[in-house]
Amino acid sequence: MNLNRRDLLRAAAAAGALGVAWPLSDRLSVAQAQEAAADLGARWDSAPFTLGVASGDPLPDSVVLWTRLAPQPLADTQPLPDTVEVEWLVAANRELTRIVANGRTAAVADVGHSVHVEVGGLEPGRRYYYRFRALGIDSRTGRTRTAPVGPVGRVRFASANCQSFIDGYWAAHHAIAREDLDFVVHLGDYVYEFGQAGGHPLRDHEGPEAFTLTDYRRRHALYKGDPSLRDAHAAHPWFVTWDNHEVVGDYGQATPQRRLGAYQAWYEHMPIRDGHPTAPQVSRRRYWGDLLELTVLDLRQYRSAPNVPGATILGAEQKSWLEQGVRQARDSWHCWVNSIMLGQLRVPGGHRPYPDQWDGFADERKEVLTNVHTAGLEDLVVITGDWHSAFVQDIRPDFDDLTSPVIGTEFLAHSIASSGYGPAANAVLGPVLGLANPHLKYFEGNRYGYDLYDVTPDRWSTHLRVIADRRDPVSPVSTLTTFHVDRGEPGSYEDRATAGSAAQYRRLW
Ligand SMILES: [Fe+2]
After folding, report:
1. How far is the CA of 368 from the centre of ligand 1 (A)?
2. Coil, helix or strand at residue 215
3. Architecture of domain 155-188+282-506 in CATH?
C-alpha cells in the first residue's frame, strides 16, 4: 500500500469519487460505513467479538479481561438483547486445556455490551491465556501476564500514544504485538474526536466530530477495526491513561455532557478495573516486583483552568496521593505514566506557549518536584506522550535554575501515527527549543513509532523504535537511538552506538 488513509480520502474526493469515504460520516448507511472502513484497512474479528479482546492492569494475583460485543461495530445500536451472557476462561497454556479460572458475566446494553472481568486467584509473574464465549461463538485467544513479586532482574515494556486513524497505518502496533514484552502502557490520544481532518479542505466530505456517547462508541469501534491494534491488545496486558482527544482537543469544547459520553465510551473500550463508566478511576500505583513502581497519572479529569491562582493539573486528592507515594516509596525505579509534557518548554523570548501542559500549572509542578527532591526519591523516569515528537530531558524542581538538581529524566515518545510538524519545521524547531531549554537533551520529530523500555536493577534503557513509513501497515521497525539512565545517577546519556543517528537537536554538554 502506498497511500495513507488521509491521502486515500483526498484522492477520492479530488476524483469526485465517493468510493472511499470517511466511515463515520453520518450520510452513510451501516453497510456503506463498513465498506468505507474496509477501504481504509479496517478488518474486524468475527461477530460478536468484532473488537477483539484485551487484558490490563496486572497485579500479582489478578488481571482484568475485556471484550465488547458489537456485531455491527459502526452501527448506532447493536442488534443484541439488552443482556447477553458471556463465558470466560483463563488457562495456563495456549491450547486452553489447563484451565485455572472460569466464569460467566453479563454484557449489558447500558455499557455498550462491554465486559470487564476482574480475575483473581492467579499466580504472580505468570503468563496466562484467556478466551470469551457468547451466543455460541468463541472469541480469539488473548495472552496476558501477572505482575511478579520479590526480586526481579528485568522488565521490558513499551509505550504507545497518539494513534490518529486518519494519519497513517499502525505498523507500530503491528510491531508492539510481536515484541517480547511484560506489558504495554498507553499514554493517551487513543482516539481523536475531530471531524477528519481538523480544518483541511475535505472536512465536509470526511464527516462529523464526536459529541455523544454513540459518536464516541463508533469512533472507538472504528479504531479497534485496525487489526494491529487488536493484535497488540491480545498479545500483552496494558496499563492505560488518557489525554485530551479522548474527549476534545485541549478540552476546549468539553461540555459536561460531552465528557460523560466520551468517558463512558473510553471505559467501555479499555481493559480497566474499578468500573465507574462516566468517571473512570485512571490513576493507580502498581509494582513489578522490587524492580519498578509504576505511577499512572490522570492529568485530565481533575484539572483546573491553567495559569490561574492555585491552578492544579492533578486535583487536590490525586496530588496528595502522589506526594504520599513519593514519601513512602520503596527503593526501586519510579516511573510516572504521564500523558502530557512535565518539563518546562520555553520558546525564544521566554514565553511558555503551551499552558495545556504542566507549564500551565507551574507552581504545582515546582511543588511536586521539590517534594520529590526533599523526600530523597531517586531513580525517577517520566514517560510522556502528546507531542508527536521524541524529547529526552532532565527534570529539575526549578527548570530556570541550572543549580537546581537533576532529579529525573523525561522521555517523550514518538506518536504511533498522529502527524507532527514537518521535517523543514523540525529542522528549525530543534535548535530553537534546545537554545531556550537547557534541560533539553534530544529532539527528533520526523518519525513515528513507540518507546521500548528495558529495565534492570542497574540500568534503565529507552529504545526509540521507529517505523520506516506510515503508509505501510507492516512497515519494518528499527531502533533510532537508545538512551540510558544508570541507577543512582540522575540524568540520561545516549548510547554511543547510535549517538550519530538523525535528530534535529542534541545537547553537547
Ligand atoms: Fe496526540
Report:
1. 25
2. helix
3. 4-Layer Sandwich (3.60)
Cβ atoms of 298 and 283 closer than 8 Å: yes
Residues 107, 113: contact at Cβ < 8 Å?
A: yes
What is the tens place of the pLDDT at every residue in 48-106? Answer: 999 999 999 999 999 999 999 999 999 999 999 999 999 999 999 999 999 999 999 99
Q: Give the residue carrying C-alpha cell 486467584.
A: 121
pLDDT at 486 over 90: yes
What confidence tier does 275 reach under pLDDT thresholds 50, 70, 90? Answer: confident
**Separation of CA 148 and ligand 1 centre (Å):** 32
From the list 318, 384, 396, 317, the residue with the least C-alpha distance to 354 is 384
The residues of the chain that CATH labels 3.60.21.70 are 155-188+282-506
Strand partners, 441: none
Q: For all residues of the chain together, what is the average pLDDT?
A: 94
Specify the pLDDT at position 207.
Answer: 65
Q: 388 C-alpha to center of ligand 1: Å?
A: 6
| pLDDT (tens digit per residue) in 361-378 | 999 999 999 999 999 999
Pairing status of strand 99-108 against strand 237-240 = unpaired
Å from CA of 410 to ligand 1 middle: 17
Count, residues in the chain: 509
Give 30-51 pLDDT, tens digit per residue: 999 999 999 999 999 999 999 9
Q: Give backbone dihedrals phi and psi of 308, rounded to 5 degrees, phi first.
A: -120, 160
Residue 417 CA to ligand 1 centre (angstroms)? 9
